[in-house]
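Researcher: Final request for today, and then I'll write up notes for the group meeting. The sequence and the SMILES for magnesium ion follow.
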Amino acid sequence: MTTTAVHGGARNAVSDSLTMIGRSIRLSRRNVDTLVMSIVLPLLMMSLFVYVFGGAINTGTQYINYVVPGIILLCTGYGAASTAMSVADDMTSGMIDRLRSLPIRSSAVLTGHVVASVARNLLSTTVVIGAAIAMGFRPNATVTDWVLAAGLLLLYVLALSWLAAGLGVIAKSVESASTLSFLMLFLPYLSSAFVPTNTMPSFLHAVSENQPITPVIETVRGLLTGTPIGNTGWIALAWCVGLLTCSFTFAAWLFRRRTHG
Amino acid sequence: MIVEATGLHKAFGSTKVLDGVDLHVAEGTVFALLGPNGAGKTTTIRILTTLSRPDLGSVRIAGYDVVREATKVRGVISLTGQSVALDDQQTGRENLVMIGRLMHLGRPAARRRATDLLERFDLVDAMKRRVKTYSGGMRRRLDLAMSLVSQPRVIFLDEPTTGLDPSSRTTMWDAIKDLVSSGTTIVLTTQYLEEADRLADRIVLINGGKVAASGTTDALKSQVGGDRLDLRFAVEADVARAVALFDAPRGTDPLVLGIPSDGSADHLHRVLDDLRIAGVPVVKVSSHRPTLDDVFLSLTTTDRTPVQV
Ligand SMILES: Nc1ncnc2c1ncn2[C@@H]1O[C@H](COP(=O)(O)OP(=O)(O)OP(=O)(O)O)[C@@H](O)[C@H]1O
Ligand SMILES: [Mg+2]
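Model: Predicted protein-magnesium ion complex:
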């Protein structure tokens, strides 16, 4: 009647992470409201911008070709908010105590949420791009361009997901997690996502030129539709790598602090 | 001793919660931690289960130090916390298999273990339903089942039967007794003294951050004295006269006087005769055997005169 399982070690660390990833993905799949919203909302936004505002915004190209990268990043912000909320749910329910009383590296719970977050984003991004093409989006990207764009977006999504996980760890409740992640939903509007930044007043122009979303969007737009990229690609990469390093460290540090009382 | 805690201190900011608590639990026994709300029961359990570090003091579980060898401790214990910890959006079975995988059972072994536990806790019919559809009693049962996946040597249960109806409570008690008979050690906290009375081999009562009493249930009961006669009077003046007559201390109820008794009819006769001769009318007489409630009340209520023998 005794277990002979051995705990600790690299193999178990991988298997624990896989178990937690499986759990988070299952929970995401079953949280139908959130999943549907994370797809429907960007689609609504895209229709709104393309059919309602788009005619009045002069970007020098077909507006849909201009706006798709911004919609993709908007989705990411939305996805991050739900990641922060599910992390906060675990941290504030008894679940985290149960997991921490097991002989596992309990940060696997964060890994699970982050990977599920990336998977949700993959789904919503695919749907958005499909819908955009149906609405007249005409990318002229080569396979290499697509791969580079996907790689950059993946880095960005990972960085944002770890940031969201960190916010979920500090939040005192699920509601405050959603409030904390409000900024991530708001930042795309202060970027070149929907309108060229040179149309903004000089103060906002400075803000939008120097926040991470603008170079990421400019790069993705350049890769997909052939607008000039210049050195924004490197700036975007630097932002994403820097952001990922910081947000991962931040989340891991907060988790350790919060769980060592 | 499978659980050995010495000199536990814990404060949250300026609130001292534990102020030098010692606990010793022998392997294969049931140990109950009692105390009023906010006494520090959950805090103690969290320290014993590696979730929280003591400010001072040390704990060894099965010989492992809870701070330095936390992973080893986690390999031999399990915790069912005060609030139910389940994934509402997973089925009962998925919840159990997940824990099995995290305890590093292989996938087939984790599935087998889940099936065994679902049968044992009468959850087979509900195993494919999401936990959000479960009743409170089913959740508590599944929560306990989650703790048993790894066949731990020491099981910590923080108020395992709070909020259960009497029949679910009996089921839970039976499950606990089964575990003990197979050699598992149980450390539980409870608000229900009856529960401690039924299950526990030893009890520790904490109050004000310190151990207020400890021992077997019988020893604790004898600490508050033997049988007692409770005399109820119509007016307080009568109580005062009876106090003089029997030299007994007053209790909390101003109209009731408790006097020590050997429980015999003879003693009852004598008491009633004394009262009649002195002309003190008594309204009601009841005899009282000590319960853990008396222990609890006498040790945790400061403004109450302790019951004396
Ligand atoms: N993380 C914390 N931060 C601040 N205070 C805390 C914390 N955890 C517990 N306390 C305080 O410590 C005291 C003891 O709490 P604990 O939960 O251990 O009591 P308990 O005996 O389990 O009570 P109950 O019977 O209500 O469950 C309480 O006053 C509580 O407010
Ligand atoms: Mg408690």
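Model: The two ends of chain A are 34 Å apart (CA to CA). The mean pLDDT of chain A is 86.
Researcher: Thanks, that's everything.
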